[in-house]
Amino acid sequence: MTEASETIPDDSELHSKRRKFLRLFVIGLAVVAGIWGVWYFLTQAGRVHTDNAYVGADTAVVTPLVGGAVKEVRVGGTQRVRKGDVLVVLDDADARIELANAEAMLAQARQRFRQAQGGTSASSAAVAARGAEVAQARARLDAARADYDKANDAYQRRRALSGSGAVSVEEVDQARAAWFEARAALAQAQSAIAGATAMQNSAQGEAAASAALTSGYSEATAPDVVAAEARVAQARLNLERTVIRAPMGGVVTNRSIQIGQKVQAGTPIMTLVPLDRMYVDANFKESQLRKVLAGQPVEMTSDFYGSSVVYHGKVVGFSGGTGAAFALIPAQNATGNWVKVVQRLPVRIELDPAELKAHPLRVGLSMDVVVDTRE
Question: Do residues 244 and 88 make contact, with C-beta atoms less than 8 angstroms apart?
């Protein structure tokens, strides 16, 4: 009995050991909690996290500006291209014909302008000639009027003396005939001056019309010539547009064009995704955005590379509305069976170009985003 009692500890000793263990456990737990609290306060407090984030980019949809048959396709899907690289070549036969026709019309317009200038000079000469004819007609009218006055005086004198027998009847008849002839010549001279004046007025009108076509213009500024030059420029531009070039650098995606295919202007043929100008749209809950501001730093990781690759960026801005507000069929929250659902607001995040170049992303990849709202 004595040996057995010596091997079994008493209750007081067990309680003492238990209290000591519990005390050490509580102290250790408190130390761990304190360390975790300090770590959380220093590293995690004020950080907002979401995994509802996706990579996006301002892609370029390539469309031909002129229609035509596809002659060459020089790129394939997933191929990287630089700005200005030739993507597609269209058949340019029709464009070359249009350019030749426009150039011929330009030559005709310039020829017509030179003809109009020559016509203006000819009209001015015609006006001068008609003026000389009017002067000649007036001179003949003056001569005819003088002859008429002379014949009229001679006839009236002989007529007055015919009753006294001083002149013979034959002389009176001759004087009257000369008077009739002078009167006819006077009438003819008056008609001639009226005709010459009318021709002069017509020539002046033609000269004014010709001058209106060229007055204030040169061959380079004439309206018909300028319009023809514009048609030539448009035709030359259409010819250049038969060669479709990359509007920016990126990766070819959604290529939907083949050799021999007939395409129309404005038809999408491929999409270019710029790998060096991507961003992330993070869809945070509305309750998380209380302290999120533009310019705050962001850390991101992607399943594409894993947690070993950390991207850094900053908040650029916020969308103008939630996804539900711009949905194809928006929620009818005015109905009687309304249930509140926490909404998400897209937040645009800018990526570091150097990091993006080192580890390229693709549109649509998911991201884990952490925004540090302490700064």
Answer: yes
